[in-house]
Task: inverse folding
């Protein structure tokens, strides 16, 4: 174990090692694109399983960042550091980097098929990933804002990557206007919070709020409200969701996958950290707002999704609904709820990327065949693809024995333990409604036959097949044996940095030497009993 | 006035600055919701960011330098956003020869 006191610059570099690695990879890709002769771009001899240099750099960069995150899990830092060094961040990094790894692998076929600029795609994806990692590591509102913008700006460009397709440009404009609008709200919320508490550091701010009588003050309430609005747009919670279906439909599908998983997960984890960990002492401030967001976000999109005829659009509404389930975990404000959210985010990332990958594969050249009608008879034309899609859809719907089912059970448990019975009931009922639209695709695949003139989607490449197959296997495996993953999620949550009462004004002088105890853990008698009750969840 | 905001310590000039920023922010929000030209909407978003900056600077009178540091970051981010945003608007113009948001149904429920 090593202790970072941030007395020298080196400590900042080390604490941000995954971010540094990813940034360097992105810069390397851009430099290569600028200075090395481009031979293959746009030429006809692009083959599906082509491993371009950009692709390799991206994969190695992400893998190195994963290792660096693992290394960081042994490190510790003072409780009021700007950069979080805790299990929560490491778990978040794993979800985000893993999701990005899936997206990059699966996007390879798509990039070749649609003749998209690979260097730009990979570099921008890496920059977006850096933003996400900064966002989940931030314990300071300045860092939070910078991370969020780094992520958002890169994704605006990624959305408009298919420049000759008007749908892509349109989606990009929509996402940009709404995203910038949300960022402005977030910024103003940060300004008000800064005015109310006198600091941008979350740890210090939390203590200032609980210690002094600033609770119930107008600035503080407005600040937290605007922060929630800003995050609400990013995680696409109702009523800030109106941009989602159009943008998800218009964006190139791998980018949709990145938006639906990475961007949403990062904003979600940041929301969890800000609200339930750092402002966890003053739940009155935000709990009602989050409760209503969760209710609306579970009910509305599930009803709208019933009427959709486009699979991409339907999955967009389904992704909004999943944000609602995740918000239940935030609303409980318990460590069990946080662990449930982390577990569900991991499941959600794998199954969303997987299902969207199948969707863009079936859609074919030009990304045109994405109506539900186009899935008729897929179960007999391409049995492998159909079975995998079936597994992802069942997991999204929450059928046992899949990871999605365990995740929902986990969140349900957290909601009941926290006494949020109405939320728990809504979660179950809306999940039942959702069965209909997920199973409708399954019905089309297996029980209706394709029209005579329908062309069979081509067979996917080897990398695509393996990745999708392994993801589906992981979904089932984690659904059958969730024990270790649940433990991991709980450990990650109990090892999160909490604001402590003793705030050092200058942590550089006071924290020298590594014999100091690690951060005060949130583990308490309460979490112990919750852990016991969670044993029932497992059937191993 | 002070009770409303809960800031006893902020002086009059600071209070005026905070209120100006609140008005600017409100104008920006209304502009985004009501105006339909992409460029004007974009300008309104910049107005909202500027409102945030003014508030931060005003609060810095009371709390010290952190807010002013954030202002520099916001200016850098706003510049990057302007570059990307204008590029996106040009891309849209190439397709439709119009930058009217009604054409795309943005910000509609």
Result:
């Amino acid at each position: 174990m090593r202790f970072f006191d941030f007395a020298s610059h080196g400590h900042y570099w080390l604490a941000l090692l995954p971010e540094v690695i990813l940034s360097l990879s992105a810069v390397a890709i851009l430099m290569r694109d600028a200075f090395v002769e481009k031979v293959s771009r746009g030429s006809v001899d692009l083959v599906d399983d082509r491993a371009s240099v950009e692709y390799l750099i991206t994969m190695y960069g992400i893998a190195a960042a994963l290792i660096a995150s693992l290394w960081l899990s042994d490190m510790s830092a003072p409780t009021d550091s700007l950069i979080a060094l805790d299990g929560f961040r490491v778990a978040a990094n794993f979800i985000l980097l893993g999701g990005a790894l899936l997206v990059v692998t699966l996007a390879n076929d798509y990039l070749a098929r649609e003749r998209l600029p690979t260097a730009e795609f990979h570099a921008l994806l890496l920059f977006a990933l850096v933003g996400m990692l900064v966002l989940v590591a931030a314990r300071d509102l300045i860092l939070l804002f910078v991370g969020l913008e780094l992520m958002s700006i890169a994704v605006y460009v990624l959305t408009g990557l298919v420049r000759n397709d008007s749908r892509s440009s349109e989606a990009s404009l929509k996402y940009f206007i709404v995203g910038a609008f949300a960022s402005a709200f977030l910024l103003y919320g940060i300004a008000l919070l800064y005015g109310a508490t006198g600091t941008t550091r979350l740890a210090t701010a939390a203590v200032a709020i609980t210690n002094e009588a600033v609770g119930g003050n107008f600035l503080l309430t407005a600040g937290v409200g605007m922060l929630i609005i800003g995050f609400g747009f990013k995680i696409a919670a109702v009523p800030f969701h109106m941009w989602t279906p159009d943008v998800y439909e218009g964006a190139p599908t791998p980018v949709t996958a990145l938006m639906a998983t990475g961007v949403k997960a990062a904003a979600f984890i940041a929301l969890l950290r800000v609200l339930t960990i750092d402002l966890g002492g003053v739940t009155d401030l935000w709990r009602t707002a989050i409760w209503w967001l969760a209710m609306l976000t579970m009910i509305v999109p599930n009803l709208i999704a019933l009427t959709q005829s486009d699979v991409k659009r339907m999955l967009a509404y389904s992704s909004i609904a999943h944000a609602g389930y995740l918000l239940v975990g935030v609303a409980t404000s318990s460590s069990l709820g946080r662990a449930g959210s982390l577990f569900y985010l991991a499941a959600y990332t794998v199954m969303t990327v997987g299902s969207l990958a199948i969707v863009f594969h079936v859609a074919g050249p030009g990304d045109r065949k994405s109506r539900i009608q186009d899935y008729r008879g897929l179960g007999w034309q391409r049995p492998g693809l159909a079975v995998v899609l079936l597994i992802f859809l069942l997991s999204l719907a929450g059928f046992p024995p899949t990871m999605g089912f365990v995740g929902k059970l986990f969140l349900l448990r957290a909601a009941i333990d926290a006494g949020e019975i109405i939320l728990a009931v809504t979660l179950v009922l809306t999940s039942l409604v959702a069965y209909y639209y997920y199973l409708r695709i399954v019905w089309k695949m297996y029980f209706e036959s394709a029209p005579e003139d329908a062309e069979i989607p081509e067979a996917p490449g080897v990398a695509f097949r393996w990745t999708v197959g392994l993801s589906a296997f992981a979904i089932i495996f984690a659904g059958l044996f969730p024990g270790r993953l649940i433990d991991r999620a709980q450990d990650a949550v109990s090892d999160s940095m909490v604001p402590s009462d003793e705030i050092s004004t200058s942590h550089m002088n006071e924290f020298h030497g590594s014999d100091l105890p690690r951060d005060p853990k949130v583990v308490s008698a309460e979490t112990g009993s919750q852990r016991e009750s969670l044993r029932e969840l497992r059937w191993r | 006035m002070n009770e409303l905001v809960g800031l006893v310590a902020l002086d009059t000039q600071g209070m005026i600055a905070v209120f100006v920023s609140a008005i600017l922010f409100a104008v920006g929000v209304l502009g985004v919701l009501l105006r339909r030209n992409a460029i004007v909407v974009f300008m309104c978003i910049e107005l909202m960011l500027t409102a945030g900056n003014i508030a931060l600077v005003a609060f810095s009178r009371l709390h010290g330098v952190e807010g002013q540091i954030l202002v520099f970051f916001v200016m850098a981010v706003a510049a990057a956003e302007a570059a990307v945003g204008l590029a996106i608007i040009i891309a849209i113009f190439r397709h439709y020869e119009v930058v009217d948001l009604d054409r795309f149904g943005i910000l509609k429920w």
